[in-house]
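re: ur question from earlier - yeah i can do the single chain one, its not a big deal. heres the input i used so u can compare w yours
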Amino acid sequence: MIPEHTQHIYGLSRQELQEEMISAGFPRYRADQLYTWLYAKGVTSFDGCRNLPKELRSELQHRYRITRPVCSTEQVSSDGTRKFLFELEDGRKVETVLIPAESLDEGQPKRLTICVSTQVGCPLDCKFCATASMKLKRNLTTGEILGQYAEVQRRSDQRISNLVFMGMGEPLLNYDNVLRTVDILTDEAVGAIAASHITLSTAGLAEGIRKLADDGRKIKLALSLHATTDDVRTRLMPINKKYPLQTIIDAAEYYYRSTRRAVTYEYILFDGINDADDDIRRLVKLTRRFPSKVNIIPFHPIENAYPDGPPLHLSPPAMHHIEDFADKLRREGVTVMLRSSSGRDIDAACGQLAVKHGPIRTDNI
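and the output i got, formated as tokens:
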């Protein structure tokens, strides 16, 4: 049995592990060994750290614990998308989605993308997102974010090739834990995912975007745009009152000028709200400021999270209108991707993640 006073060790960076080992009286190099066992080899018990002396493993077991989220349920979509419900140590829950690419290479999807959550719930109240119904419960720890990747990879026969911070929560509101996760996953000693295969999606926290640019991680940035005027964007995303369009586009341009990496604009089409020819003209103008592309995303129903009805009546345009919208952008030289509705039948598509919570524990967090 693990003593209740033990500290969490899963999720510590290499430097934090070194500091912890030294303060506990262990040689510094033991931290590097433990780092490899935790993140490259994925042990869940100190007994699995075979190159550590038995006495040291016993001492580690007495002082620390390796805790990862526990998968309580898994759903599989007709299109192969898998949704995992993870229970955390305090009883709260988050959802994680594994999405195979539609194109195949030798019978296997060319890409396998994991969509991870960074918060339990979200405080931003976007009117098209089911997660908003949960409000914000708390940030996830580094170990809880990393653990989603580790547990899903353990359940997958194919190597996960891409990771997107597009699940529950606003990643830039949990900046330190998200970036520590990035650093561990992209460490050559871990060999999990290349930085160029990681995308962080934000609702537009301008100072966070600028900080991300200055910190120099080589990940991609996606900006949840969804409107070309402040009036419409504020209706859809109340955060626009604090960070209006000009502010977030300036921050996105700063990101590009600092990193030389193109920015992706995410754009959910809503019938009669943001799908007019004027929106096309404004989008074209916006994409010409600096290299970027537009991901057009279908709107997915969120009634599952709002039994009394969603906060704003929204509906998707007809598919032919969505395709016409995309074609008009392309004719103006805009790089456009049409996002699929992967996992819609299990409420795993974009904007559909939400869970209900039972009793919450307050110990051991």
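The chain has two domains: 7-65, 70-346. not sure if urs matches, ping me
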